[in-house]
Design brief:
- This protein is an alpha+beta fold.
- A hairpin with a 2-residue loop joins β2 and β3.
- Among the domains are: about 35-160 and about 375-385, 3-Layer(aba) Sandwich (NADH Oxidase); about 175-220 and about 290-370, NADH Oxidase (3-Layer(aba) Sandwich).
- α5 packs across α12 and α6 (about 205-225) packs antiparallel against α11 (about 275-290).
- The protein has helices at about 25-30, 30-40, 50-55, 95-115, 175-185, 205-225, 225-230, 240-245, 255-260, 265-270, 275-290, 305-325, 345-350; strands at about 5-10, 15-20, 20-25, 70-75, 75-80, 120-125, 140-145, 195-200, 235, 250, 295-300, 330, 360-370.
- The strands form four sheets. A four-stranded antiparallel beta sheet has the order 4-5-7-6, with helices on one face.
- It binds flavin mononucleotide.
- Flavin mononucleotide (FMN) binds near residues 100, 331, 333, 334 and 376.
Length: about 375
């Protein structure tokens, strides 16, 4: 408990006195090991498939669960599987968001391979599309074909700078409309993505309506014991937890170390509806939503598994394009989630966006301008390879 420890602030550097021992807070909060895969990606592994996969594991995924597992085959192929233990049964009952993450992985794999003069032949769901939930069958079979005429994707140049923004944006600085139009256009500018409709708005009425529905949805998610529990126990608080499990929702930095050591911030507290830690979680995310000057969303005509994979490609293309021009990007997925308590807001947003089922709004994002941020943790490539 913090009461048994003195917190000294000396010349700007915080030092915790722990039972007579000293530990600098900055050393204690170091999460460099969890970020190592971002450095490793540039290393080169002597095989185009590993080289490309080292970038693909940097793709976004729901709660950063990194559900991808890769099996290398022969000299030129790999099969992508979903690690079925890395899904979110409460917040993502049909595994739709998990599948989108796997689609983002495939798009980054494609871009990284193109960078090395290889074209990918991707066969989605070679043993058939899964039904209500993903299953053990492969997500995709991928063949790498050396081809000098393969066009490089300029978005790839931003792969190492892509971040999911967890900072407040300047609410008075919307993304200029010509820039927004360019971002939306580039997100589907790849063969196979032309049926996906991308929209966006900085118009005051639409933005305030979206903020309101996103905050309502967030509160529904946080007040439902099962969904709150799922996210609370996937939160890694402080460097020790983050480096041991480089996935989930990460809370890093010196203040987080202090909160964790004081017992103010624990998974149990976050999971206790109405507790100070729970209230802080609610208002922190509401603050992010409230700072949004611009929103973007996209929808598919149906909701097949292949459309979900394609949605992952549009998702990361949009995010890479935003990174390229210094625009911050954060998904706000709660209102799109498929459980009964969310049915009202889910129906409202689909109606407002003119999307009727089986069509689906697959992604909703706030965009804006904020400061920089470090990369999120990742499991190393070798842990994602099936041997
Ligand atoms: C399908 C999907 C849904 C997501 N939903 C949210 C969300 O609602 N809120 C949020 O802050 N991040 C969301 N994320 C972002 C992930 O949390 C993020 O990708 C992960 O933590 C890794 O961080 P990075 O994108 O900065 O590498 C989502 C990502 C995906 C692929």
């Amino acid at each position: 408990m913090l009461s048994r420890r003195a917190l000294l602030v000396t010349g700007g550097a915080s030092i915790l006195v722990l039972g007579g021992g000293y530990a600098s807070l900055s050393a204690m909060s170091n999460i460099a090991p969890a970020r190592e895969p971002w450095r490793q990606a540039t290393r080169g592994f002597g095989d185009v498939r590993f080289n490309a996969a080292a970038y693909a594991i940097l793709a976004p995924s729901p709660h950063n669960l990194q559900p991808w597992m890769i099996q290398m085959e022969g000299e030129d192929s790999l099969t992508l599987f979903c690690d079925l233990t890395r899904r979110l049964p409460e917040t993502d009952p049909p595994d739709r968001q998990t599948t989108i993450g796997l689609g983002a992985f495939l798009e980054l794999l494609r871009q990284a391979a193109a960078e090395q003069g290889h074209r990918l032949e991707i066969t989605p769901f070679p043993d058939g599309e899964p039904g209500d939930r993903l299953d053990e069958r492969p997500i995709a079979h991928v063949r790498f074909i050396e081809d000098d005429s393969t066009e490089r994707d300029l978005l790839f140049g931003h792969a190492l700078r892509r971040r999911t923004a967890r900072l407040k944006f300047d609410p008075g600085r919307p993304v200029p409309s010509d820039r927004l139009a360019a971002l939306m256009k580039i997100s589907t500018a790849r063969p196979g993505l032309d049926t996906i409709r991308v929209d966006g708005s900085s118009e005051t009425g639409m933005v305030s309506w979206l903020k309101d529905i996103c905050k309502r949805a967030w509160e529904i998610e946080l007040r439902k014991p099962e969904t709150c529990h799922e996210s609370s126990y996937l939160t890694r608080i402080g460097a020790k937890q983050i480096n041991a499990n480089p996935d989930g929702i990460f809370l890093a930095g010196q203040m987080m170390e202090v909160y964790r050591m004081s017992g103010m911030l624990t998974q149990e507290n976050m999971d206790t509806i109405g507790s100070p830690a729970w209230e802080a979680t609610l208002s922190m995310y509401n603050g992010l939503i409230d700072s949004a000057p611009t929103f973007v969303w996209f929808s598919t005509p149906g909701n097949s598994r292949t459309e979900q994979l394609d949605s992952g490609a549009v998702w990361i293309r949009l995010q890479l394009a935003a990174s390229a021009v210094g625009v911050g990007f954060q998904p706000l997925s709660q209102v799109l989630e498929e459980y009964s308590e969310m049915a009202g807001p889910f129906a409202e947003i689909h109606k407002r966006f003119g999307v009727s089922l089986p069509g689906r709004v697959q992604g909703l994002f706030r965009l804006g301008y904020a400061g920089g941020q470090g990369p999120a943790p990742r499991w190393p490539l070798e842990s994602r390879i099936i041997t």
